[in-house]
Each structure stands twice: as C-alpha cells, then as structure tokens.
Design goal:
By secondary structure, this protein is an alpha+beta fold. Strands 1, 2, 3, 4, 5, 6 and 7 form a 7-stranded mixed β-sheet that branches. Strand 6 and strand 7 form a beta hairpin. The longest helix has 18 residues. It is built from 4 helices and 7 strands; from the N terminus they run H-H-E-E-H-E-E-E-E-E-H.
C-alpha cells in the first residue's frame, strides 16, 4: 500500500469510527481532527457548515441510529480516490449482524491540509438502493 492509499485508508477508518464512537469526547475529537473548521456536509436533506454544526449532526446520528437502534456504519466495498477526492460506499447495518438498513455513497473533498472541506452525502434505504 503506497503512502497515498494509507492516507486515504486512515481518513476512511477515522470517518467511519466517528459515527460509531460511543464516547462523546472522543467522537468530537475525531470530528475536529477530520474536518476543516469551515467544512461543510451536504445532502438532499441538509446543508451543514462549520465543524461545530458537524459535531452536532454526528452526535444526533449517533444517538438516533447507533445508540438507540444498535446500528453501525461501515464500508460497503472499496473506496476510490484521486487527487483531493475520495468516494466511499457505506452501509448502516445492525451491530449484531443482518441486512443493512441503509446504503449510500459519500464524496469527500479534501483541502490542502488533507482535512475534509466538503462532504456530499447520498443515502437511501437499503431496499430502495437495491432496486435503483
């Protein structure tokens, strides 16, 4: 694995751990280490700007999906990258095993420091994703 592939793998591992981390202080540390201070997280449903807002979004998702319903977020295949972009297929599945509840793709745009400047989030229920 070359240095660029290791860097991308490290970003992906930290990004996925951010959603699943049960300790709020550690989760906030991960978010703040991954994202640019003025980073943005965009989907069809939201447009969040600034690391403090991103921390709140991650906390809410953790509470709603990981803590309350027992799901985990994980890679759903190989990531792809070039230059300052990363494409990550992911899924949200029961921690104890079973079929995914949701699937999606996240597109990362990294800044010059290698932190997430923008992240475009595409998600669908697993049944919907499988039929489209």
């Amino acid at each position: 694995m070359n240095a660029d592939a290791k860097r991308v793998q490290n970003i992906i591992e930290r990004y996925l751990s951010m959603w699943n981390e049960s300790d709020p202080d550690r989760r906030h540390e991960i978010v703040k280490g991954l994202w640019a201070d003025d980073g943005e997280n965009v989907s069809r449903r939201f447009d969040i700007r600034g690391v403090d807002e991103i921390v709140r979004r991650v906390d809410q998702a953790h509470t709603d999906w990981v803590q309350s319903k027992g799901f985990i977020f994980k890679a759903a295949g190989a990531a792809d990258s070039h230059n300052h972009l990363i494409l990550l297929p992911w899924e949200m599945a029961p921690r104890k095993g079973g079929m995914p509840e949701a699937r999606g793709t996240d597109v990362f745009v990294l800044n010059g420091d290698g932190r997430i400047q923008s992240l475009y989030h595409f998600a669908a229920l697993a049944q919907t994703a499988a039929t489209t």
